[in-house]
Amino acid sequence: MSMIRAGLQRLANIFSSGHGVLSRFVTNIAPSQQQSVVETQKEVIATCNKLIQEKPSRNFAIIHLLGKQWRVTDGDLLVVEGYWPPNIGDKIKLDKVLLAATKDFSLIGRPLVQPGLVTVTATVISKGLSHTRTHFKKKRRKQFMRINFQRAQQTMLRINSVEIANKINEDLRNVF
């Protein structure tokens, strides 16, 4: 019991003294290299710009299209349900990019990536109807049965390219 009291007494002395536990930990840690936030940001942006120019790799993006989010890369096929006006063969540019990335870095939008920075292009391949969905309703012992069939409109897109077009943090020209 006396050992416990002695340990508690030591803790009480540490907390009651002006230095405290935190100051003891801080003084024991070796001083690290301090860098300002602005310098770190500039280094990260310079590294990303260098990677964009030197190492073209397979980019991917997360886009917002007709109320859903899609992860797309070059050559992907998307089947979008619901009415959509573009015709077969139309080339479209998908502007609502939430995130764009390569294997080396990611560009995350808040909520969208800067307009004009990432270009996602697609081609409408086909338009048609989905497979037939059957809605069958029955109430047992009531001689009630209903069968309804439903087919939704679908548009199939092929993603042509996902490109990180400009350098990060540069002035954008002719965005739209």
TrEMBL record:
Keywords, ordered alphabetically: Ribonucleoprotein, Ribosomal protein
Gene Ontology terms: cellular component = mitochondrial large ribosomal subunit
Annotated InterPro entries: bL21-like, bL21-like_sf, Ribosomal_bL21
A GO biological-process term: translation
Q: Does the keyword Ribonucleoprotein apply?
A: yes
Q: Does the keyword Ribosomal protein apply?
A: yes
A single GO molecular-function term is:
RNA binding
Q: Which family does it belong to?
A: Belongs to the bacterial ribosomal protein bL21 family.
The UniProt entry, under PANTHER family, shows: 50S RIBOSOMAL PROTEIN L21, LARGE RIBOSOMAL SUBUNIT PROTEIN BL21M
The name under which this protein is listed is: Large ribosomal subunit protein bL21m
* Organism of this sequence: Parnassius mnemosyne
